[in-house]
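Researcher: We plan to redesign the surface later, but first we want a full-length starting point. Tokens attached.
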């Protein structure tokens, strides 16, 4: 009997690598790897709405189980921004560098004690039978005043993890995955399966 495949609705290479590493016991493939081209417009106002939108769009194109994640950085001093707009904080098609530059500029005058932040993730799994199951994860920390390290992706070089007392940008992939919001969301999801 062939192994069951879990298709992930993301074009983000860093995110896919992280999910594959966390779900190493599963046959995980990105939609592109499976030869499926799809585009889901993230019109939701919450991470769970956007995860569901992406998962449902991909599920229309396959009989396999699908997984979608929506995640982002929520900064306390910015009332939770950039939040669901994290990937496009500096504008549509913004690079990671541009998003980090904008965040550092906006927080330039914010003192260290007010730079609390959290990475949040919601994952939506749609089973082969069409059942939707969600998982949520949070990783607390603070925003640094400058980049530390060049590892990870997105806001990792400016996010200081409370759990590991280090910037995500200097940690190895494996170290970050021990405490990441995505890992916690996937663990929450696995508990519900």
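Model: Full-length starting sequence:
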């Amino acid at each position: 009997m062939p192994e069951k495949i879990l298709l992930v609705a993301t074009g983000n290479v860093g995110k896919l690598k992280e999910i594959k590493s966390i779900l190493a016991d599963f046959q995980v493939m990105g939609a592109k790897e499976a030869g499926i081209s799809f585009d889901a417009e993230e019109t939701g106002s919450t991470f769970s709405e956007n995860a569901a939108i992406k998962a449902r769009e991909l599920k229309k194109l396959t009989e396999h189980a699908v997984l979608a994640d929506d995640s982002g950085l929520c900064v306390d001093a910015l009332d939770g921004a950039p939040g669901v707009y994290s990937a496009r904080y500096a504008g549509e098609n913004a690079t990671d560098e541009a998003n980090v530059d904008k965040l550092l500029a906006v927080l330039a005058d914010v003192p260290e004690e007010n730079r609390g932040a959290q990475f949040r993730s919601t994952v939506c799994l749609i089973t082969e039978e069409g059942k939707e199951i969600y998982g949520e994860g949070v990783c607390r920390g603070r925003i640094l005043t400058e980049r530390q390290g060049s590892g990870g992706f997105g806001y990792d070089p400016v996010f200081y993890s409370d759990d590991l007392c280090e910037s995500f940008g200097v940690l190895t992939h494996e170290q970050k995955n021990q405490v990441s919001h995505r890992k916690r969301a996937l663990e929450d999801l696995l508990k519900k399966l």
